[in-house]
């Protein structure tokens, strides 16, 4: 399909070393203006680069705040090449008429496998034994080493990752309990705990799989750590803000917790050349990983293809299916029509003004799709019009009060 705004003029800014599979997907779809950066950009540079971009692709480091998004006057869509979208001000993007897409499942399995591996390593005291061996020591002893079989795994956040961890843990013979704010179908023999506190008091290993939200910020602090069983273990591969890291360090120092595995941190380096600082440094009983829960070649490859496909589909066809912040519209193509997009504030009267405009111009509407949420309305209109008419229609649509964006797609 030939788009009105030529694809070769659409600027795609890809940051944080997103998988090359994304680059190839854009190229295959006819997008040639690709700017690729291995790292997250410092804020000033990000503002300058995003001001030029029509599409931006990020991972978890780039903070797309309201202030940054306000600079992005040409931006049509954002792709988060990951699961988490907490790094984007989703409300601001919506109010600016910019849909945000992510990959909600592509790295689930990778995180779950790492958590299972860490569970076994921590239960066996491998991190501290490994560290001592590297220093020339030798602790051949069963003290403090346990099988995973029959231990209680407490999963906080029983969503895509939490449930996969539960299924894998049961295959090792672990007993699985979980806590979630939503009522969830238990997989296998997993059982819902009565509360977070109940889970913390019963689990030998607690693993966190909640998103970053206001309710999960510092969800595990001094009080919650004190509730955990003496000698128990904590795994955090969710977001760094979910755990009070100083309280965790204190709990490990006092030997209340026997160990921890931490993949995500309140402050993370912007790229591989920057220093990593944490109160957990130097603790042999802590597995520290650089936010690589979802970083396998399989996952990154799939994420690149999935998110690029969603961005291309929106750019080529107007489909917002699976956008995380936007009314979802999925559209068949009508190649013999002209397609116009209109994104507006969801206030009464906008749709009737749109339709008046077409009837006044005696333009036949072939198809119309409307979805709204509490703030935004998104209408796609396929019309029988020529190129000149559709350009004029776009300008008139843009003049309707409440309009956020209006485009001729093809
Ligand atoms: N370490 C990594 O590399 C990595 C990779 C992927 C995802 N993640 C993180 O893991 C998070 C979870 O991923 P997912 O795919 O399982 O998400 P998901 O949305 O499928 O599941 C999250 C679950 O948490 C629950 N939840 C939300 N708030 C809660 C609260 N206050 N208390 C208890 N439960 C709550 C939800 O109801 C949901 O069931 C992501 O949001 C992301 O931040 C990290
Ligand atoms: O790749 C990343 O930077 C983030 C990975 C993970 O935290 C996610 O949210 O999917």
UniProtKB/TrEMBL annotation:
For this UniProt record, the keywords arranged alphabetically read as follows: NAD, Oxidoreductase
Catalysed reaction(s) here are: (2R)-3-phosphoglycerate + NAD(+) = 3-phosphooxypyruvate + NADH + H(+); (R)-2-hydroxyglutarate + NAD(+) = 2-oxoglutarate + NADH + H(+)
Q: Which PROSITE patterns match?
A: ACT (PS51671), D_2_HYDROXYACID_DH_1 (PS00065), D_2_HYDROXYACID_DH_2 (PS00670), D_2_HYDROXYACID_DH_3 (PS00671)
Would the keyword Oxidoreductase be found if you checked this record's keyword annotation?
Answer: yes
**Gene3D superfamilies from the xrefs?**
3.30.70.260, NAD(P)-binding Rossmann-like Domain
Give the protein's biological function: Catalyzes the reversible oxidation of 3-phospho-D-glycerate to 3-phosphonooxypyruvate, the first step of the phosphorylated L-serine biosynthesis pathway. Also catalyzes the reversible oxidation of 2-hydroxyglutarate to 2-oxoglutarate.
Protein's name in the database: D-3-phosphoglycerate dehydrogenase
Q: Which organism is it from?
A: Dyella kyungheensis
Gene that encodes the chain: serA
